[in-house]
Design goal:
With 419 residues, the chain is of the alpha/beta class. It folds into two domains: 212 residues, Rossmann fold, CATH 3.40.50; 182 residues, Glycogen Phosphorylase B (Rossmann fold), CATH 3.40.50. The protein is 42% helix and 19% strand. The chain contains 15 helices and 15 strands. The strands form two sheets. Strands 1, 2, 3, 4, 5, 6, 7, 8 and 9 form a nine-stranded mixed beta sheet that branches. Strands 12-11-10-13-14-15 form a six-stranded parallel beta sheet, sandwiched between helices. Helix 7 links the parallel strand 8 and strand 9. Helix 3 crosses helix 4 and helix 12 packs across helix 14. The longest helix has 25 residues. It is globular.
């Protein structure tokens, strides 16, 4: 059986003939589908002639191919290329037996329209919430409220018409975008902890780092090491909120060095904003890091991890930070409250509250140690083997029920799997 999986990532074909990208849906992550399906076709926009840089992951490989759509950035370029995009989606849908839409996104929306036109069944994996991702402050566009309204409406329709749904948040996403009464639904975060959890030795080293922080407050022995991981393709990760908070912390005497990991079209603007706030000497923009060991090495160097997102269905980077025993502060949106305790949360976009939380937490070594231990224990609740089992059961359902649906065009009813 051949399954078509939609992707919203920007991919590119390198000079070696293979296709690369930055997203978590790389070949190693997508290959788990091959336990259930004979062949996987990734439907994605692909750019040509881009040189490889650190952090690039290969997406194609044995039994996993890419159906290449024209590359575009932004809604206006999407509209200009809509005709060839539609033709490509139609051809890709016709070539496959089964369909998994990773939603929301414009590529997924085009595929959904074609699948429905062909009267075939499909499954969906809900990876983020457009209500938050396109909320106030996330995009510099007059049309942002319209985009948000349309995206929410489309996602609700896609979810109510799907035969099976896999949510990456346990509570928020199923509540806002519920499945139909007869569909199969399950929860599994889109996270693969490839390097494992913090060892006792690593946790002991972190406890020593926290003791150094206490000494730093008395003797200015060293600056705090703060970390952020997130895309700069849009502003919903809250890097601007964090910079405002750090500016307040600096004015209140906190010595720190803040490291920002990520790439995207707003990176230069965010760097300029750090200069405008007079904290450019205290901020370092690292660029993109590869998934796996480079990210974990970065997290192990931090005293405090910060995720001030305006939207976050399930924070992969946050869970990875927790798995390494990092004390963390996040915003009270999406799936973040499912991972962090109330004492580690602030309202999204509230830089004053974030600054106050940073100052409170870093001034209290006992609290930092408790956060570190609590986060590691909580991360272990998201055991990769448990969630791999959930995903495999989901994929088997898609295979066993979707094949007959695709051939007959009839929508079958299924039993509801509680979340």
């Amino acid at each position: 059986m051949k399954i078509l999986v939609t992707l919203e990532e920007h991919l590119w074909r390198a000079d070696d003939g293979h296709i690369y990208g930055h997203g978590p849906a790389s070949y190693s992550a997508t290959s788990e589908l091959l336990d259930t399906f004979d062949e996987v076709v990734l439907l994605a926009r692909v750019e040509r002639g881009k040189n490889l840089r650190p952090g690039h992951n290969r997406f194609d490989g044995p039994s996993i191919s890419i159906y290449e759509l024209p590359n575009y950035t932004g809604p206006w370029e999407y509209l200009r290329k809509l005709s060839p995009l539609s033709v490509g989606v139609q051809q890709a849908v016709a070539q496959c037996d089964l369909y998994l839409l990773r939603v929301p996104g414009l590529i997924s929306r085009l595929a959904w329209q074609e699948i429905r036109r062909a009267k075939r069944a499909y499954a969906a994996q809900v990876v983020t919430d457009p209500a938050d991702a396109l909320g106030a402050g996330t995009m510099r566009s007059f049309f942002r409220p319209l985009y948000r309204y349309v995206a929410i409406r489309n996602l609700r329709k896609i979810c109510t018409q799907a035969s099976a749904l896999l949510y990456c948040s346990k509570n928020v996403l199923p509540h806002r975008y519920p499945p139909s009464k007869g569909s199969y639904s399950a929860f599994s975060p889109w996270v693969v902890l490839t390097q494992g959890y913090a060892t006792p030795e690593l946790m002991a080293q972190r406890q020593l780092r926290i003791d150094e922080i206490s000494s730093s407050y008395r003797h200015q022995a060293r600056p705090l090491v703060l970390g952020f991981i997130g895309s700069f393709a849009q502003l919903y990760k809250g890097a601007d909120t964090l910079l405002r908070a750090l500016s307040l912390c600096s004015r209140r005497g906190l010595e720190f060095k803040a490291f920002f990991v990520g790439e995207g079209r707003y990176r230069s603007a965010i760097q300029s904003f750090a200069a405008d706030l007079s904290i450019h000497e205290k901020t370092v923009f690292v660029g993109q890091l590869s998934f796996g060991k480079p990210i974990f090495d970065f997290l192990d160097s931090l005293d405090l991890f910060l995720m001030p997102s305006r939207a976050e269905a399930f924070g992969r980077a946050l869970l990875e930070a927790m798995s390494r025993g990092c004390p963390c502060i996040g915003s009270n949106v999406g799936g973040i409250p499912e991972m962090l305790g109330p004492d580690a949360l602030v309202s999204p976009g509230d830089h004053k509250a974030l600054a106050q939380k940073i100052l409170e937490v870093t001034a209290d070594p006992a609290r930092l140690k408790a956060m570190s231990q609590r986060n590691l224990a909580k991360a272990k609740e998201f055991d990769p083997e448990i969630h791999r089992h959930v995903r495999r059961a989901f994929y088997r359902y898609v295979r066993d029920h979707g094949a007959s649906n695709a051939k007959s065009g009839r929508k079958r009813q299924s039993t509801l799997q509680p979340l």
